[in-house]
Amino acid sequence: MISLLSSRSIDILTWLHIQFTTYIPAFHLPLCFFPSHPREVWELNPPEVTNSVLQYAAWGVQGQQLVYIFENNIYYQPDVRNSSLRLTDSGKEGAVFNGIADWLYEEEILHSHVAHWWSPDGRRLAFLMINDSLVPRVVLPRFTGVLYPSGYTYPYPKAGQTNPSVKLYVVKVQGLADTVELRPPASFKSSDYYITMVKWINSNKTAVRWLDRNQKSSLLAVCEVTTGDCVKKHERTSKFFLTMQNEEPLFSNDGNTFFMILPEQQQDKGEFHHISVFFHEVNDEINIYTLYIQTHLSFCFFFPRVSYVGTFTRQCLTCNIFKDKCTYFSAEFSSDLQYVILNCQEIVSFYHLFFASFCSDEAPGSQSITEKFHLDWDSVLSSSDGVIVAQFDSSGSGFQGLNIMRQIYQRVGVLEVHDYLKAIQYVILKYFINYWCCNEL
């Protein structure tokens, strides 16, 4: 993906952001900078690499900071005119990844190829070092136009096989370079684990979540980046499996209060996810349902049961806005909480189609059916190729309560198949479906 962005200086225009998925072979493309006066070009080409593929490049958070990745190593420039500083030297293509995700972390854990995070002041960079050296490989064919395809080898851990090891580091990019490892809690050091979330609280502290390989135990900690010491803030366990492990806690300015989404028992209906607030001073937890604004914390949240001394004014801000036109919004508040932007993320389309494609996100706890508008391969099929796309949420799907999600515990691939067949048999009986393309079902 290539985006054209203006920099934070009025005299320069820059081509950024350039990203290449790490496990899909990229092509050689230099990153160049074009100042408006005078006309000059600078190319990102650190002296440590030759004939290498640029894997990632992006602005930092202050001034004209740049961070980019060659050969799985992170490079930093405080300005486009400055020389580069290599922050890591352990990178090895196909084996050790610094600041960028391998296949497992991109697709299944972080859901992003970016595995580094800037501190708010731009003085430090947190990054993952993912080591795939012991991970079994799979060979995938590459069709490049020649008679026979070539093979490309990827680290690809299957169930029960060796997973990549992961470490979290924070490097100081200004002044004397200094790298500190944020160490996992003792209960995780001797076993396989994932790092599922990293979030800066302020310029000196980060929130980190560790998850064990069985995905039954997770720990949220706050780490001091100058020492690497981490303090446990919340621990979750489940006899089934944990979900929403990528969720970032929302911290108050002083870092003493934070919000998370956690499951809560709903009488005899099972557990459902709700917002919870944690007060550091008393280690108290309050579950939240109804929209409420607490001005002295500058937070907007939901309150279910009142155990807080004081009076409240409850008001739902969005319940009756555009209800007949849009039901799926994202919200962004102004800094003073006086205004909110509601972005409708759905679209209504009308189809006159005949063939059918049946899709489902098979990951436990996932959700395929929402009213959020998105563009993907299903959109191409439905808009250009005369295909009806049917999506299913079966047993094991999320956002319908944990009882439904946990039905597939130790039975993955059994109930879902039954649900899919029932759904397909129902859909193909509709008069607008080409039954003959699905008659084997």
TrEMBL record:
Residues 37-283 form the Dipeptidylpeptidase IV N-terminal domain. Pfam families: DPPIV_N, Peptidase_S9. GO terms for biological process: proteolysis; regulation of potassium ion transmembrane transport. GO terms for molecular function: potassium channel regulator activity; serine-type peptidase activity. It comes from the Eukaryota. SUPFAM superfamilies: alpha/beta-Hydrolases (SSF53474), DPP6 N-terminal domain-like (SSF82171). This is Dipeptidylpeptidase IV N-terminal domain-containing protein. One of its GO terms (cellular component) is voltage-gated potassium channel complex. InterPro entries: AB_hydrolase_fold, Peptidase_S9_cat, Peptidase_S9B_N, Serine_Prot_S9B/DPPIV. PANTHER family: INACTIVE DIPEPTIDYL PEPTIDASE 10, PROTEASE FAMILY S9B,C DIPEPTIDYL-PEPTIDASE IV-RELATED. It comes from Erpetoichthys calabaricus. Residues 374-433 form the Peptidase S9 prolyl oligopeptidase catalytic domain.
